[in-house]
Amino acid sequence: MSQLTHYTTNFTKRTFPITLVSDQVSNAPNIGSLFRICDAFGVEKVIFCGENIPVFGRKMTKTARATEKVVPFEIKQDIHSVISKLQKDGYTIISLEITEKSQSIHTIDFSKFEKIALVIGDENFGVNPETLYESDIVTHVDMFGQNSSMNVVQATNIVLYEITRQHILVK
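Above: the chain's sequence. Below: its structure in token form.
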């Protein structure tokens, strides 16, 4: 059995109606990894919200491995105006955060939402409380160890996998 390369895989290219909204994620390698997973999971667009977001630079591009050239993105300062516009455009706003009322990703039927805006928060403080309030759903990844959080990119990977898995099963 031989290993396939980027050029010999038989994956079908698809784009899903998912926009990733990054609220103050500012670590360059994390941003590069977000580009990479958004490409892998067919995310239609990434919106980076905040100030001084290092979307360009050696550390980011090294991790992104050129996916920043194929994943559409925008940089906006105010996440609240972004959320408001996405809601007007028919997106269901789903924030990824552990809260008293957040729902496990295993209990949500993501396939019933036509368009999803997945909001992720910064590396230290998560999704800000105002954005959680503006969200239609707050979800979390179940964890079974001692730690109460995981890296934002790893959590985003898990949720994007579940959203796209459910959309593929339904379509």
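Residues 16-170 form a domain with the Alpha/beta knot fold (CATH 3.40.1280.10).
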